[in-house]
Amino acid sequence: MADTPRKQTILVVDDAPENLDVLSGILKGEYRVKVANSGERCLQIALTSPPPDLILLDVMMPGLSGWEVCAQLKDEPRTNGIPVIFVTALSEVGDEAKGFELGAVDYITKPVSPPIVLARVATHLNLHNQELHLRGLVQQRTEQLASTRLAVINRLGKAAEFKDNETGLHVIRMSRYSRLIALKAGFSETEAELLLNAAPMHDVGKIGIPDHILRKPGKLDADEWEIMKTHAAMGAEIIGDDDSHLLSWARTIAETHHEKWDGSGYPNGLAGEEIPMIGRIVAIADVFDALTSERPYKAPWPMEKVLGLFTEERGKHFDPFVHDCFMAALPEIDDIRRRFSER
Predict the structure, then answer these.
(1) pLDDT tens across 198-217, in order?
(2) Fewest beta carbons within 10 Å, which of 102, 243, 244, 289?
(3) Element (H, E) at 80
(4) Whole-prediction pTM
């Protein structure tokens, strides 16, 4: 047996009992009706769960007027989407204009006509339902796009890992280090999570570096090093321009994570605050993981040696502020290093 459709709820607000009776009588055959005899009571009911689907609101009431009630409804995130129709004896054009300026969707003058009340209520409920449906579709599509972008980033990150000698654990560690440093630097949880998901693309440009250079077990010569340095700009080119924050941040990180605070980095020789903050954060996270991890060509550095180098590079390679945020997050960073070690 099919479920019976839920009756939509109309909140009728008027300080005159006879007006509440009239409007309730008109609506009760089609809708579930709630009544409030004051503006204060209207606000209380509107904040209940579930909220009313539409509000019929008188203007001239003792205490809070209808104008004031409507303004408060529109200022409150939990109620600003509820359609409001003013029902009032005020019939001047200026009164109607004020109602619309406050965010009402319609204006009915007293004495009311039952067919007009029913028609206006039905129209605005249908419009509101369509708006909610469209919002849902947009939200669903937005989530699908975000999921697709994240999947693309993960796959490109994996492609770079297959190309290089580094493992997927490097990406896991350095992206988590970046998130912790970002939180210490004042990023919101949402921003830090965005950085966590964008950071794995930092070395995607290595896809374009020849294997004989990328996998060379010894030190690169000058010409080979110049080729290796192109991976930062190449990574930005691979990611391209995109309006999404995720891919935009991934591009910025790929291009700037080898810049240095003193201007001696690459590819653009940026210095100080010319380097985007997310690039400065990923820079220190990436270097820390490279030094503390085992590679075919090196053993992991002990923590004391790493921290000693970082102290020397504070204000040279690393932004002093980001270095200090790294140090503040070091206990949590070291926990991640141990939990996701290659062993």
Answers:
(1) 998 898 888 888 888 888 87
(2) 243
(3) none
(4) 0.59
